[in-house]
Amino acid sequence: MAKLPTCFVIGNCTHRPIQAYLSATGLFSEVESMALFTVKKEGFGEAFERVKTYDYVFSIAHGAIWGPFEAANLKSVFGKRAATFATPFFTGLHPDLIYAANGQARVQSALLGDYHSGLVFWGFMTGQPVEEIIEMYHGAELPPLFALETAWQDAITELHARDRHVDIPSAPVFDRVCREKPAMLTFNHPSMDIIAALCRAFCARLFGEDVPAWADYGNIYHHLTSDVRIPVMPAALRAYQLPYLSLPTYKCRPKPHAKDVYLRFDDFARLSYQDYAAQPRGRLTAATPTGLAARLNAAIGQAL
């Protein structure tokens, strides 16, 4: 039997589930991975030399600031032995989810780490009673600034634009899988359903469509499932006619070694209002994603 090849995965926080899935396929003798943002700039050269010892590379299409890991250089060194994919980021399933900032610093939610409900943020910042925000949520209504009628397609269009520069397209994967099941934990944390589809496409590229690249991924550990999980809100379920239900709770970020905390929207919204009230309100702004953040900040500015 011929020796199986090795593979190195270069990603962000998704590198570990990708490594786990590719290992489970049995198509590689070894699969190693790393999150590139954890490598210091002075360590790029040494890290790249290590990656060069592997037969294949599966990498997010990193930009020029990442030195030798920049996508064009990666392709020039590895040729067809390297395949790139776009950073997993899909806002369509969570059209109100944002990052927030206080000046230049990202604001950490006491409940969800980096993540905030844009609906709750907008409500607090414009002086809406929290009970009205709760009623709006359960009534499956969002203010027009959330552009719910185009949010899904806008997210897919953005993915198509990024797919033009990579080997493994992801827009069809996100569009198909997220219509079948709630396959995003947050807008940048895909479930193993998305990971599996991307990995299958990578394996098909390397070995051909006839080579099995499946794995029973329900039994593969996905560390991001132990972090924050955002429910698909009723407004999104109705607007996109999604054929499933989402768990109704926000899985909050627990303290180290504490049990997981799950909150329904009503309690989540009230606790978020308390959290925002304890911060310098005048400097709070929405930061990501760009389009929604700009609309939120404009609406908040007009209301103040």
Structure at a glance:
With 304 residues, the chain is α/β, with parallel strands linked by helices. It has helices spanning 15-25, 44-51, 71-78, 118-125, 130-138, 148-163, 171-180, 192-207, 234-239, 265-277, 290-303, and strands at residues 6-11, 30-35, 56-60, 82-85, 97-102, 105-107, 116-117, 184-186, 189-190, 249-252, 261-264, 284-288. The mean pLDDT is 94.
Q: Could you characterize the architecture of this molecule?
A:
This protein has 304 residues and is an alpha/beta fold. It is 39% helix and 16% strand. The strands form 4 sheets. Strands 2-1-3-4 form a 4-stranded parallel sheet, sandwiched between helices. Strands 5, 6, 7 and 12 form a 4-stranded antiparallel sheet that branches. A hairpin with a 2-residue loop joins β5 (97-102) and β6. α1 crosses α8, α5 (130-138) packs antiparallel against α10 and α7 crosses α8. The longest helix has 16 residues, at 148-163.
